[in-house]
Protein 1
Amino acid sequence: MSSSLFIAGNPHATSSTFIAAIQPAIQAHGMEWVVLANEASRGAFDVPSFQVTLSGAEVIVLHFPLYWYSPPALVKQWLDSILTSGWAFPKSSSKLRGKTLIISVTTGAPLSSFQPDGSNGSTLEDLLLPLKRTAYYCGMQWGGIVASQWNPASTEQDALASSAQRHVDELVKHISARG
């Protein structure tokens, strides 16, 4: 597998049952693992260190739970901090140029509700379009979205484990497809 970086953008990653379920499988596939909530020091990120880490990856998987139809504020803060002028853009000289961005997202609602005629009124592709546009602006390739419904309060353990494994398998498939 190509050099892949998994960025867990869940602000509550240490207590997330989804993160706990997928982390061993993600790491078993050789992906580097970063938890944004553990990386913010006094509300700020070590920008040069993150930029070096991102420079070394061919594929960047940005994971987060969907909060009110968008990524959590932690993810936005990280993007605003790391994607600096002269480093991430313009795309002609971007250090991210040619890398692939894959979005990994969990929702509390059924995935079928993310349709124009569904209860959420939009597709995940529509809701996450700003991330796709950001990837293109930085000269990256769009690797797509891998989504899973995750509601541990209403699902039994075997179903959760199966859902987590399907999510990991789909991520691996997306990463492998880029080559």
Protein 2
Amino acid sequence: MDNILITVRIADREYRLNIKREQEELVRAAGKRINENINKYAENYDFKDKQDLLAMVVLQNTIKAMELDRQVSFQQNQLSGKLNEINEVLTDCLSTK
């Protein structure tokens, strides 16, 4: 395995992560986005501590992930249905010849 050890700073805390080398850019970008979202919430809402901000970022990201899961599931179901219809049409055409 080609793993590397990196440090990612989130909400003023450092986290050492052992990740695959090819994931480094994605992990660092994710950390940056989390911090950007924390800063947005800090500017717009009252909060007691960073945990409140982290909770809001987690909630926001979980909602987005659930929406994407729904969309993917819907698209897969629609695609599967359409492919079955096409298969039936082709099967009927081939069986009539």
